[in-house]
Amino acid sequence: MTETRTNRAKDEPFQYLGVNHVALVCRDMAETVAFYDGVLGMKLVKTLDLPNGRGQHFFFDCGMGGTVAFFWFPNAPKAAPGIASMHPEYLTKGTQTAHASMNHLAISIPLEKFDEYAERLKARGVSLRIINHEDSEQHASPVVTDKTWIRSMYFTDPNGIHMELAALTRAWRADDIRHDPVDAEGKRVSVQEPAAKESARRVAAHTSS
What we know:
By secondary structure, the chain is an alpha+beta fold. The protein has helices at about 1-10, 30-40, 90-95, 115-125, 190-209; strands at about 20-25, 45-50, 55-65, 65-70, 105-110, 130-135, 140, 150-155, 160-170.
């Protein structure tokens, strides 16, 4: 019985409670505190001085137990737009970034507060680009339509990090998964294949035990 319970526990999905924190690197911690706590209103909740003068690590509350964290390193390399982060001229140079890079950071906000928050940030001097993402050939609209699935406001922090405040307009649906992923060479792979391989692996593991 104990062995059966153990095997069943191994097959249960992991329980995820949301993103705990994302760790970024800033050029100036004081400037970063002023922006995230002072302008965005993300309360500074934890500060660390790293041992042996290796830098600092600060955490800002972004809601639901999650935080946006920043390192400051005294000898960190300069920013690499278009490689480690999105290029500031992404409208003409594209939004692509390197493998394992952080393209942009999106924080959820209440849908009913979206327009209010946009106006408040503009009043604080933040330059915004607002997009209503929708299920259409254009993928976006200047206005909210019945095809809109998320509203987004984009801006850049003092470190050059591309930020997004986003509000879903509806719950996820089965038809939101309608495209097969591509492999490293850009070839389509059936979305069922990874699931089929994982299922086969579980059967094999269970049989061998």
